[in-house]
Amino acid sequence: MLDELRARHPALRTMVGESELLLETCQDLVAVARTRFPVLLTGESGVGKELAARAIHELSERCSGPLEVADCGSIPRELIESELFGHVRGAFTGAHRDRRGAFELAHRGTLFLDEIGEMPLQLQTRLLRVLQEARFRRVGDEGLVEVDVRVIAATNRDLRAEVTSGRFREDLYYRLNVFAVRIPPLRERPEDVGPLVRFFMGRQAGELEVGEWSIDGDVMEALERHTWPGNVRELGNLCAGLAVRARATGHVTLDELEQVWRRQHHDEEPPWQSAPAVARGRLGDWVLEHARAARFNLIEVARLLKRRKRAGHIVPLTERSALSYYLTGEILCALAEAGGDTDAAARALAGDEDLIPRVEGRVRKIWDTLRTAEGDVTALRRHFAKLPAGYEAPLRRASALADRS
Protein backbone atom coordinates (compact mmCIF):
# COMPACT_ATOMS: atom_id res chain seq x y z
CA MET A 1 0.00 0.00 0.00
CA LEU A 2 2.91 2.34 0.62
CA ASP A 3 4.17 1.71 -2.91
CA GLU A 4 0.73 2.55 -4.29
CA LEU A 5 0.53 5.69 -2.17
CA ARG A 6 3.96 6.83 -3.34
CA ALA A 7 3.03 6.13 -6.96
CA ARG A 8 0.00 8.42 -6.62
CA HIS A 9 1.90 11.01 -4.56
CA PRO A 10 5.61 11.15 -5.54
CA ALA A 11 6.30 13.70 -2.78
CA LEU A 12 6.09 10.81 -0.30
CA ARG A 13 9.14 9.06 -1.76
CA THR A 14 11.33 10.95 0.70
CA MET A 15 9.53 9.12 3.54
CA VAL A 16 11.66 5.96 3.40
CA GLY A 17 10.40 2.74 4.98
CA GLU A 18 7.76 0.04 4.68
CA SER A 19 6.19 -0.21 8.15
CA GLU A 20 2.50 0.03 8.97
CA LEU A 21 3.21 3.06 11.17
CA LEU A 22 4.90 4.90 8.31
CA LEU A 23 1.94 4.06 6.05
CA GLU A 24 -0.47 5.60 8.58
CA THR A 25 1.74 8.68 8.87
CA CYS A 26 1.85 9.11 5.08
CA GLN A 27 -1.92 8.72 4.88
CA ASP A 28 -2.27 11.53 7.43
CA LEU A 29 0.06 13.76 5.41
CA VAL A 30 -1.99 13.19 2.25
CA ALA A 31 -5.25 13.82 4.12
CA VAL A 32 -4.19 17.20 5.52
CA ALA A 33 -2.06 18.48 2.64
CA ARG A 34 -4.86 19.93 0.50
CA THR A 35 -6.57 21.74 3.35
CA ARG A 36 -5.89 25.31 4.44
CA PHE A 37 -5.47 24.41 8.11
CA PRO A 38 -2.29 24.72 10.15
CA VAL A 39 -0.55 21.41 10.88
CA LEU A 40 1.30 20.42 14.05
CA LEU A 41 4.00 17.78 13.58
CA THR A 42 5.09 16.07 16.77
CA GLY A 43 7.87 13.60 17.40
CA GLU A 44 11.31 13.17 18.88
CA SER A 45 14.40 14.85 17.52
CA GLY A 46 15.67 13.23 14.33
CA VAL A 47 12.48 11.43 13.24
CA GLY A 48 12.07 13.48 10.04
CA LYS A 49 9.58 16.23 10.86
CA GLU A 50 11.06 18.60 8.27
CA LEU A 51 10.77 15.89 5.58
CA ALA A 52 7.11 15.51 6.53
CA ALA A 53 6.60 19.29 6.31
CA ARG A 54 8.18 19.38 2.85
CA ALA A 55 5.95 16.49 1.76
CA ILE A 56 2.83 18.36 2.94
CA HIS A 57 3.93 21.44 0.99
CA GLU A 58 4.62 19.44 -2.19
CA LEU A 59 1.27 17.66 -1.88
CA SER A 60 -0.65 20.89 -1.34
CA GLU A 61 -2.11 23.40 -3.79
CA ARG A 62 0.66 25.76 -2.66
CA CYS A 63 3.41 23.57 -4.11
CA SER A 64 4.24 26.17 -6.76
CA GLY A 65 4.81 28.76 -4.02
CA PRO A 66 7.78 29.09 -1.66
CA LEU A 67 8.55 26.92 1.36
CA GLU A 68 10.34 28.88 4.06
CA VAL A 69 11.91 27.22 7.12
CA ALA A 70 12.46 29.00 10.44
CA ASP A 71 14.13 27.07 13.28
CA CYS A 72 12.78 28.70 16.43
CA GLY A 73 15.33 26.81 18.53
CA SER A 74 18.46 28.06 16.76
CA ILE A 75 17.60 31.73 16.16
CA PRO A 76 18.80 34.03 19.00
CA ARG A 77 15.86 35.33 21.02
CA GLU A 78 16.72 38.97 20.28
CA LEU A 79 16.58 38.27 16.51
CA ILE A 80 13.69 35.85 16.14
CA GLU A 81 11.04 38.56 15.76
CA SER A 82 13.00 40.15 12.93
CA GLU A 83 13.63 36.74 11.32
CA LEU A 84 9.90 36.00 11.24
CA PHE A 85 8.44 39.43 10.47
CA GLY A 86 11.32 41.41 8.99
CA HIS A 87 12.45 44.94 9.88
CA VAL A 88 13.00 48.36 8.41
CA ARG A 89 16.25 50.22 8.25
CA GLY A 90 17.22 51.73 11.59
CA ALA A 91 14.79 49.62 13.62
CA PHE A 92 17.67 48.47 15.85
CA THR A 93 21.46 48.47 15.92
CA GLY A 94 22.73 46.67 12.86
CA ALA A 95 19.54 47.11 10.81
CA HIS A 96 21.26 48.85 7.86
CA ARG A 97 18.53 48.08 5.32
CA ASP A 98 14.95 46.94 5.05
CA ARG A 99 14.62 43.17 5.29
CA ARG A 100 11.70 40.85 4.68
CA GLY A 101 11.02 38.14 7.23
CA ALA A 102 10.03 34.49 6.83
CA PHE A 103 6.29 35.25 6.77
CA GLU A 104 6.66 37.72 3.91
CA LEU A 105 9.01 35.42 2.00
CA ALA A 106 6.50 32.57 2.34
CA HIS A 107 3.63 34.58 0.81
CA ARG A 108 1.31 32.24 -1.14
CA GLY A 109 3.34 29.31 0.10
CA THR A 110 4.17 27.50 3.32
CA LEU A 111 6.09 28.51 6.43
CA PHE A 112 7.59 25.69 8.48
CA LEU A 113 8.20 26.72 12.09
CA ASP A 114 10.53 24.08 13.52
CA GLU A 115 10.81 23.65 17.31
CA ILE A 116 7.84 25.93 17.95
CA GLY A 117 8.05 25.03 21.65
CA GLU A 118 11.24 27.12 21.89
CA MET A 119 9.47 30.33 20.86
CA PRO A 120 9.44 33.05 23.58
CA LEU A 121 6.03 33.73 25.14
CA GLN A 122 5.93 37.35 24.00
CA LEU A 123 6.44 36.32 20.38
CA GLN A 124 3.82 33.58 20.72
CA THR A 125 1.26 36.35 21.30
CA ARG A 126 2.26 38.08 18.09
CA LEU A 127 2.27 34.82 16.13
CA LEU A 128 -1.27 34.07 17.28
CA ARG A 129 -2.44 37.46 16.02
CA VAL A 130 -0.78 36.91 12.63
CA LEU A 131 -2.45 33.50 12.29
CA GLN A 132 -5.82 35.09 13.07
CA GLU A 133 -5.53 38.26 10.96
CA ALA A 134 -3.06 37.25 8.19
CA ARG A 135 -1.22 40.55 8.54
CA PHE A 136 1.58 42.04 10.61
CA ARG A 137 4.03 44.91 10.93
CA ARG A 138 7.74 44.65 10.34
CA VAL A 139 9.90 45.55 13.32
CA GLY A 140 10.12 49.35 13.44
CA ASP A 141 7.47 49.89 10.75
CA GLU A 142 4.00 51.42 11.01
CA GLY A 143 2.54 49.93 7.84
CA LEU A 144 0.72 46.61 7.73
CA VAL A 145 1.85 43.74 5.51
CA GLU A 146 -0.84 41.27 4.42
CA VAL A 147 0.22 37.69 3.71
CA ASP A 148 -1.31 34.42 2.56
CA VAL A 149 0.71 31.76 4.38
CA ARG A 150 -0.01 28.21 5.48
CA VAL A 151 1.83 27.40 8.72
CA ILE A 152 3.24 24.00 9.60
CA ALA A 153 4.74 23.83 13.10
CA ALA A 154 6.86 21.08 14.64
CA THR A 155 8.02 20.24 18.13
CA ASN A 156 9.77 17.49 20.05
CA ARG A 157 8.18 18.74 23.28
CA ASP A 158 4.88 17.80 24.89
CA LEU A 159 3.06 21.08 24.19
CA ARG A 160 0.18 20.18 26.49
CA ALA A 161 2.64 19.91 29.37
CA GLU A 162 4.22 23.20 28.23
CA VAL A 163 0.77 24.84 28.35
CA THR A 164 0.18 23.46 31.86
CA SER A 165 3.54 24.80 33.03
CA GLY A 166 2.83 28.23 31.54
CA ARG A 167 5.62 28.08 28.95
CA PHE A 168 3.30 27.90 25.94
CA ARG A 169 0.11 29.84 25.25
CA GLU A 170 -3.00 27.69 25.39
CA ASP A 171 -4.80 29.68 22.67
CA LEU A 172 -1.83 29.33 20.30
CA TYR A 173 -1.66 25.60 21.04
CA TYR A 174 -5.27 25.12 19.98
CA ARG A 175 -4.76 27.33 16.95
CA LEU A 176 -1.84 25.19 15.76
CA ASN A 177 -3.30 21.86 16.83
CA VAL A 178 -6.10 21.79 14.25
CA PHE A 179 -4.56 18.65 12.74
CA ALA A 180 -1.65 16.95 14.50
CA VAL A 181 0.54 14.30 12.91
CA ARG A 182 2.88 12.27 15.10
CA ILE A 183 6.02 11.08 13.35
CA PRO A 184 6.83 7.79 15.13
CA PRO A 185 10.35 7.17 16.45
CA LEU A 186 12.52 4.58 14.73
CA ARG A 187 12.39 2.14 17.67
CA GLU A 188 8.62 1.74 17.07
CA ARG A 189 9.14 0.81 13.42
CA PRO A 190 12.15 -1.54 13.26
CA GLU A 191 10.95 -2.75 9.84
CA ASP A 192 12.14 0.59 8.47
CA VAL A 193 15.76 0.18 9.59
CA GLY A 194 16.70 -2.02 6.61
CA PRO A 195 15.19 0.24 3.92
CA LEU A 196 16.74 3.29 5.56
CA VAL A 197 20.19 1.68 5.68
CA ARG A 198 19.94 0.79 1.98
CA PHE A 199 18.80 4.32 1.19
CA PHE A 200 21.59 6.05 3.14
CA MET A 201 24.29 3.69 1.88
CA GLY A 202 23.03 4.01 -1.69
CA ARG A 203 23.17 7.79 -1.44
CA GLN A 204 26.85 7.54 -0.47
CA ALA A 205 27.73 5.04 -3.20
CA GLY A 206 27.94 7.52 -6.07
CA GLU A 207 30.01 10.06 -4.16
CA LEU A 208 32.46 7.40 -2.93
CA GLU A 209 32.52 5.59 -6.29
CA VAL A 210 31.25 2.30 -4.87
CA GLY A 211 29.27 0.23 -7.36
CA GLU A 212 27.23 -1.77 -4.85
CA TRP A 213 27.27 -2.33 -1.10
CA SER A 214 27.34 -5.76 0.50
CA ILE A 215 26.09 -5.76 4.11
CA ASP A 216 26.42 -8.85 6.30
CA GLY A 217 23.26 -10.20 7.93
CA ASP A 218 24.62 -9.82 11.48
CA VAL A 219 25.15 -6.12 10.77
CA MET A 220 21.46 -5.66 9.99
CA GLU A 221 20.47 -7.72 13.05
CA ALA A 222 22.61 -5.51 15.28
CA LEU A 223 21.15 -2.33 13.81
CA GLU A 224 17.60 -3.58 14.27
CA ARG A 225 18.29 -4.39 17.95
CA HIS A 226 19.34 -0.81 18.71
CA THR A 227 16.65 1.54 20.07
CA TRP A 228 17.96 4.62 18.15
CA PRO A 229 17.51 7.49 20.61
CA GLY A 230 18.71 9.82 17.83
CA ASN A 231 16.26 8.22 15.39
CA VAL A 232 16.73 8.49 11.61
CA ARG A 233 19.34 11.22 11.95
CA GLU A 234 21.48 8.96 14.15
CA LEU A 235 21.12 6.08 11.69
CA GLY A 236 22.06 8.33 8.78
CA ASN A 237 25.22 9.52 10.54
CA LEU A 238 26.22 5.94 11.32
CA CYS A 239 25.67 4.90 7.69
CA ALA A 240 27.88 7.77 6.50
CA GLY A 241 30.66 6.52 8.78
CA LEU A 242 30.18 2.97 7.54
CA ALA A 243 30.38 4.11 3.93
CA VAL A 244 33.74 5.80 4.56
CA ARG A 245 35.05 2.82 6.51
CA ALA A 246 34.02 0.19 3.93
CA ARG A 247 34.76 2.27 0.84
CA ALA A 248 37.68 0.15 -0.33
CA THR A 249 35.76 -3.14 -0.44
CA GLY A 250 32.11 -2.13 -0.54
CA HIS A 251 31.54 -4.83 2.10
CA VAL A 252 30.22 -3.91 5.57
CA THR A 253 31.02 -6.36 8.38
CA LEU A 254 30.03 -6.41 12.04
CA ASP A 255 33.62 -5.60 13.01
CA GLU A 256 33.53 -2.45 10.87
CA LEU A 257 30.15 -1.49 12.32
CA GLU A 258 31.51 -1.75 15.86
CA GLN A 259 34.63 0.25 14.99
CA VAL A 260 32.53 3.05 13.49
CA TRP A 261 30.18 2.96 16.48
CA ARG A 262 33.04 3.33 18.98
CA ARG A 263 34.58 6.12 16.93
CA GLN A 264 31.31 8.06 16.95
CA HIS A 265 30.48 7.32 20.61
CA HIS A 266 33.85 7.91 22.34
CA ASP A 267 34.71 4.19 22.73
CA GLU A 268 31.33 3.38 24.25
CA GLU A 269 30.35 -0.30 24.06
CA PRO A 270 27.88 -0.99 21.22
CA PRO A 271 24.35 -1.43 22.60
CA TRP A 272 23.81 -4.74 20.76
CA GLN A 273 26.73 -6.22 22.76
CA SER A 274 25.60 -5.04 26.17
CA ALA A 275 22.06 -6.39 25.54
CA PRO A 276 20.36 -3.59 27.51
CA ALA A 277 16.96 -4.03 29.13
CA VAL A 278 15.55 -1.64 26.56
CA ALA A 279 16.31 -3.88 23.58
CA ARG A 280 13.54 -4.28 21.05
CA GLY A 281 10.50 -5.99 22.52
CA ARG A 282 11.48 -5.02 26.09
CA LEU A 283 10.77 -1.31 25.97
CA GLY A 284 7.36 -1.73 27.60
CA ASP A 285 8.96 -3.51 30.58
CA TRP A 286 11.52 -0.71 30.81
CA VAL A 287 8.78 1.96 30.85
CA LEU A 288 6.79 0.02 33.46
CA GLU A 289 9.86 -0.30 35.68
CA HIS A 290 10.48 3.46 35.61
CA ALA A 291 6.78 4.21 36.10
CA ARG A 292 6.72 2.08 39.25
CA ALA A 293 9.86 3.78 40.56
CA ALA A 294 8.16 7.18 40.19
CA ARG A 295 4.80 5.97 41.58
CA PHE A 296 3.28 6.20 38.07
CA ASN A 297 3.94 9.93 37.84
CA LEU A 298 4.94 10.08 34.16
CA ILE A 299 5.86 13.76 34.33
CA GLU A 300 8.44 12.87 36.97
CA VAL A 301 9.64 9.88 34.92
CA ALA A 302 10.17 12.12 31.88
CA ARG A 303 12.06 14.68 33.98
CA LEU A 304 14.40 12.05 35.44
CA LEU A 305 15.04 10.41 32.06
CA LYS A 306 15.87 13.75 30.45
CA ARG A 307 18.38 14.37 33.24
CA ARG A 308 19.98 10.95 32.60
CA LYS A 309 20.15 11.64 28.87
CA ARG A 310 21.89 14.99 29.48
CA ALA A 311 24.39 13.12 31.67
CA GLY A 312 25.37 10.96 28.70
CA HIS A 313 23.37 7.77 29.40
CA ILE A 314 21.62 5.91 26.58
CA VAL A 315 17.93 6.68 27.09
CA PRO A 316 15.58 5.40 24.37
CA LEU A 317 12.75 7.84 25.07
CA THR A 318 12.06 10.82 27.31
CA GLU A 319 8.70 12.21 26.12
CA ARG A 320 5.87 11.89 28.62
CA SER A 321 3.46 11.19 25.76
CA ALA A 322 5.60 8.30 24.44
CA LEU A 323 5.90 6.88 27.97
CA SER A 324 2.11 7.05 28.23
CA TYR A 325 1.64 5.14 24.96
CA TYR A 326 3.87 2.30 26.19
CA LEU A 327 2.16 2.22 29.58
CA THR A 328 -1.18 1.90 27.75
CA GLY A 329 0.26 -1.09 25.90
CA GLU A 330 1.35 -2.70 29.17
CA ILE A 331 -2.12 -2.13 30.63
CA LEU A 332 -3.68 -3.89 27.63
CA CYS A 333 -1.27 -6.81 28.18
CA ALA A 334 -2.25 -6.99 31.86
CA LEU A 335 -5.97 -6.89 31.04
CA ALA A 336 -5.58 -9.65 28.46
CA GLU A 337 -3.58 -11.84 30.85
CA ALA A 338 -6.05 -11.22 33.70
CA GLY A 339 -9.02 -12.24 31.55
CA GLY A 340 -10.54 -8.77 31.82
CA ASP A 341 -10.32 -8.60 35.62
CA THR A 342 -9.42 -4.94 36.17
CA ASP A 343 -8.46 -5.43 39.82
CA ALA A 344 -6.08 -8.27 38.97
CA ALA A 345 -4.60 -6.26 36.11
CA ALA A 346 -3.99 -3.29 38.41
CA ARG A 347 -2.28 -5.53 40.98
CA ALA A 348 -0.03 -7.05 38.33
CA LEU A 349 0.94 -3.65 36.96
CA ALA A 350 1.52 -2.04 40.34
CA GLY A 351 3.86 -4.76 41.58
CA ASP A 352 3.32 -3.34 45.08
CA GLU A 353 0.13 -3.02 47.13
CA ASP A 354 0.88 0.64 47.86
CA LEU A 355 0.92 1.48 44.15
CA ILE A 356 -2.42 -0.12 43.23
CA PRO A 357 -4.39 3.13 43.82
CA ARG A 358 -1.92 4.93 41.55
CA VAL A 359 -2.64 2.69 38.56
CA GLU A 360 -6.18 1.34 38.95
CA GLY A 361 -7.72 4.54 37.54
CA ARG A 362 -5.69 4.16 34.34
CA VAL A 363 -6.72 0.50 34.05
CA ARG A 364 -10.43 1.22 34.47
CA LYS A 365 -10.29 4.10 31.97
CA ILE A 366 -8.79 1.87 29.28
CA TRP A 367 -11.23 -0.92 30.11
CA ASP A 368 -14.16 1.51 29.75
CA THR A 369 -12.75 2.66 26.39
CA LEU A 370 -12.60 -0.95 25.20
CA ARG A 371 -16.19 -1.58 26.28
CA THR A 372 -17.41 1.60 24.58
CA ALA A 373 -15.74 0.57 21.30
CA GLU A 374 -17.73 -2.72 21.37
CA GLY A 375 -15.15 -4.45 19.21
CA ASP A 376 -15.48 -1.97 16.34
CA VAL A 377 -12.14 -1.93 14.53
CA THR A 378 -12.46 1.69 13.38
CA ALA A 379 -13.27 2.86 16.91
CA LEU A 380 -10.35 0.89 18.35
CA ARG A 381 -7.95 2.38 15.82
CA ARG A 382 -9.18 5.85 16.70
CA HIS A 383 -8.86 5.38 20.46
CA PHE A 384 -5.51 3.57 20.28
CA ALA A 385 -4.01 5.27 17.21
CA LYS A 386 -0.69 5.93 18.93
CA LEU A 387 -0.25 2.48 20.45
CA PRO A 388 3.37 1.35 19.80
CA ALA A 389 4.08 -1.59 17.54
CA GLY A 390 3.90 -5.00 19.21
CA TYR A 391 0.72 -4.42 21.21
CA GLU A 392 -1.78 -5.30 18.48
CA ALA A 393 -2.43 -8.83 19.80
CA PRO A 394 -3.06 -7.73 23.45
CA LEU A 395 -5.38 -5.01 22.12
CA ARG A 396 -7.43 -7.58 20.18
CA ARG A 397 -7.59 -9.97 23.17
CA ALA A 398 -8.54 -7.26 25.65
CA SER A 399 -11.13 -5.88 23.24
CA ALA A 400 -12.73 -9.31 22.82
CA LEU A 401 -12.89 -9.74 26.61
CA ALA A 402 -14.48 -6.29 27.04
CA ASP A 403 -17.00 -7.03 24.29
CA ARG A 404 -18.16 -10.18 26.12
CA SER A 405 -18.37 -8.52 29.55
Question: How would you describe the overall organization of this protein?
Answer:
This protein has helices at 2-8, 20-33, 49-59, 80-85, 102-105, 121-133, 159-165, 170-176, 193-208, 217-225, 231-245, 254-264, 271-274, 283-293, 298-310, 320-337, 342-350, 356-373, 377-383, 392-404; strands spanning 39-42, 67-71, 109-114, 135-137, 144-146, 149-155, 180-182, 214-215, 251-252. The protein is an alpha/beta fold and 405 residues long. The protein has three domains: 2-184, P-loop containing nucleotide triphosphate hydrolases (Rossmann fold, 3-Layer(aba) Sandwich), CATH 3.40.50; 187-274, Orthogonal Bundle (Helicase, Ruva Protein, domain 3); 283-404, no CATH class. The strands form three sheets. Strands 2-3-6-1-7 form a five-stranded parallel sheet. Helix 9 (193-208) crosses helix 11 (231-245), helix 16 (320-337) packs across helix 17 and helix 17 (342-350) crosses helix 18. Residues 275-281 have low confidence and may be disordered.
Distance between the termini: 36 Å
Number of strands: 9
Largest sheet: 5 strands, parallel
Provide the CATH top-level class of the largest domain: Alpha Beta
Count of discrete alpha- or pi-helical segments spanning 4 or more residues: 20
CATH topology descriptor of the largest domain? Rossmann fold
Share of helix among residues?
Answer: 40-55%
Q: What CATH architecture label of the largest domain applies?
A: 3-Layer(aba) Sandwich
Q: Per DSSP, what share of the residues sits in E-state strands of 2 or more residues? A: 5-15%
Number of domains as seen in the coordinates? 3
Q: Structural class, from secondary structure content?
A: alpha/beta
Ranges with pLDDT <50 over ≥5 residues? 275-281
Mean pLDDT value: 90
> In order across it, which strands form the biggest sheet?
2-3-6-1-7
Shape: globular
